Amino acid sequence: MPLVLVDLLSYTGTKGGMETYTRELYRSIGDQPGEFTFVGLASREGFELDTSWFPGEVVPSGISGENRVQWALGELFAVGRWASRLGADLIHGPATLGPARTRIPVVLTMHDMLYFSHPEFMSTPLYTEPVKWMEKVASRNASWVVTDSETSASEIVKYLDYPRERLQVVLLAGASDPTRAEHHERRGDLILAMGNRRPHKNFDNLVRALALVDPAIRPTLTITGSRGDDPLRPLVAELSLQQWVDLRSWVSQEELEELYGTASALAVPSYAEGFGLPILEAMGAGLPVMISDLPVFREVAADSAVYFDPADPVSIAAAITRIVSEPGLREKLERVGAEQAALFSWSATAAQTLDAFRSALANPRR
């Protein structure tokens, strides 16, 4: 039975969507027939977290996933050594990066190419070139690459010159236990947005758009996910929107359930993404979505969303106005969104990822 070492060095409890992907994928892989065995190589921080979702032993690497230098050296050199030491037949890197050189086949899940396609939006510009180099090195060593969307697949070929025949699109899904709150009464005057304050998330334009909505119907905008002093606060004050904008840090599961159950819609104004996991989760929970008109979001939501131009606050304001003033539209989006989300499942993601493992073992790239 092949042994797969899963690279969990970046798993620290602070990485958002990539950690959701890793948890949901391996929780579902644990439900698949036992063709493989697994061992997880944990960061120092990750080893202290609940890893009951992982279908195998989790071993501590002693490497910090929060210390960028330790983490980078660990990805490039330590993962391969650990795989050899443990007798692994395959390495899976679920968070885009992996070892620089190994004799053991490697499958990488590369979620996006934002450091290449949109370097101007990276919040840590000093790390942009090093991360791009690490992605190139890891992809050259990879026997197989899995990615979340056709959009990302095209960019991986474009920027990394990776062979398309060794590249597999495996769509993600919403949460295995979607947040639902049927006991709450959905409001018509609350827009929800979630995420860190990285520039590509484009929350600035969402706030500017709110200022353009007629005050008579202007909804409350709740934006969760900040850490420390919220960089949006000065803009909110400048536009005199304190009455309408509620800036929050990370919220508890109970708070999230209430927001999902009472909001008019989830707004996702990103300039670029590799997929749209929050969109799927919202639709699966019966929450309407209004989102940037990006090819990757069209792959996820199809005709089940209200789209807008993320670079144009007027366009975003028009979408907000439609959402809060047309209850029939919200009811339609709740219905068709749930139907769209049901087309995606983690069991399918797991099965297709295991196919990638088989392909890498059968066709290792030397």
From TrEMBL:
It comes from the Bacteria. Residues 16-170 form the Glycosyltransferase subfamily 4-like N-terminal domain. Gene3D superfamilies: Glycogen Phosphorylase B. Pfam families: Glyco_transf_4, Glycos_transf_1. Keywords: Glycosyltransferase, Transferase. The keyword Transport does not apply. InterPro entries: Glyco_trans_1, Glyco_trans_4-like_N. Residues 187-336 form the Glycosyl transferase family domain. The keyword Cell wall biogenesis/degradation does not apply. PANTHER family: GLYCOSYLTRANSFERASE WBBK-RELATED. This is Glycosyltransferase family 1 protein.
